[in-house]
Structure formats: C-alpha cells, structure tokens
Hints:
Layout: H1 2-17, E1 23-27, E2 41-45, E3 53-58, E4 65-71, E5 78-90, E6 93-105, E7 110-113, E8 118-127, E9 130-135, H2 141-151, E10 168-171, H3 179-188, E11 195-202, E12 208-215, E13 221-230, E14 236-243, H4 245-249
Antiparallel strand pairs: 1-2, 1-3, 2-9, 3-4, 4-5, 5-6, 6-7, 6-8, 8-9, 10-14, 11-12, 12-13, 13-14
Amino acid sequence: MKQFVIFLLLCVPSMYGQNPLEGKWITNSLLCDFKEEDSNLFVLTQHKNESFGYSTVFEKNNKNQYTSYYFAPCDNDCFPSITGTFELIAPSYVRLNALKFEQRGFCENKDETLHHDTADYYIYKVSDKTIFLVKSTSKNEKEDQEKAKYLLVTGIKEKIVFNQKQKMKIKAKGIEPLPEQVKKYATNILQLKNFKILAYNQLGRRAAWIFAVEDLPTGVITYVLQEHYTDVKGKEVARFFDCTEDEVSQFRQ
Length: 253
C-alpha cells in the first residue's frame, strides 16, 4: 500500500508536466495585457506558410518560458515581442506571466519590464491544430468549458458565407436559428450517427447562423452554417452548408 501511494505521488507532477502547448503556434495576438478584455481568448493554430502575423513559442526546456512576437517578410516594419513564463497549474489550466516587452524595427526601440501581467487560462483543444486559451476567474472546468464552446461560434466574420455551395435548402419564414434542421443536416449530409450541437450564434447582423457540431466518437467539430434569403421567386428560404475548423479559423476575428 505504501509503495502504491509513493507511485501516485510520483505521477502527479508528471501529469501536469505533459505540456499540450509545447512548440510553435500562430496566435491571434501577443500573449500579454492579460487584464484587458481583448485577452479573454487567445487562439493558437498550427497553420503553415503564414507570411505575417503573431507567433508564440512555448519552450521545450524545464524553464517554462514562452516568447510571443510579431513577424513579417519586410524589414521596414515594427516588431514587438513578449517574453514570459507559463505554469501548468492543473491538467487543463495554464498560468501565463508576461515579464518583458521589447520593440525593434522601424519604430521606437523599447525594453520594458512588465509587472503583475498574469492570468489563468483554461486550455480547450478544438482540434489537433487549434487550441483555445480561455481566461478563467473561477477555475471551474465545467463553467470554462461551456464558455469555450460558445467562443467556437463567436467573432466569426460574416464573409464566411460568401462563395459557399449550399448542400441543403428548405422553406423558412423569418430568420430564427433552426437547430432541428441542423440535426437533420448532420444526420443526412454529414452522415453522423452520434453527435451534439455544442453551441450556435448569429453571424453579426447578417441573417445567418453558425452551429458547432461535435462528432462524439471522434471529437471532431464541424461547423454548419444556416443563411436566410429570398429566392428569385420571392420565397423565403434557408440554405445550409458546412466548414471544417481549419476553414472557419480563417474567418475568426
């Protein structure tokens, strides 16, 4: 029994030591200013061939350091960067601490030490190539998971509906969301047998909705979009089509 307890104690740090963030990611901004509302969500993706934007590297060493920086192909630009530390405080939570801000290039050079720029984030794995870091104040995993699900369908640019080929069309009055029709789409078009609608939201002011549908056996999320319009005969209809996470990520604000 004593040996079993010792074994469990040895396993605890190793569980937290498995870093799901390890490596290089494209991020939607620099990882800093954690108290600001704009920092409620960081989106980490592993898109390749990006010519400019923000990238963050979580080091593989035992110092738990990260570097977040802006990159661009031209030298005549301003290049800010952040260095900081991260700590896995639970299997699904990371504490980020931004320590230093630097700026180089065609702008004023800066070297600033940051103070008290820290926050805790819930780690939500959207896919093998996308992770959400959702700011957490409660560290209540159920609550933070629901928040993350809603963020799947928040901040999507309306132009995602442009040049999309519809796969289903029905008569529909008004512009209300139609989750029952999305369930039929998931069953008949996506050929899913065991699935769940995680969340849905309107696309800005457009007469369109986006639904996040999870295939429960695989965990893969597909986005079903519903758009209302009036056809050439003057009839109100709703069309449906779907996108992958990689496709949707191109339209996240």
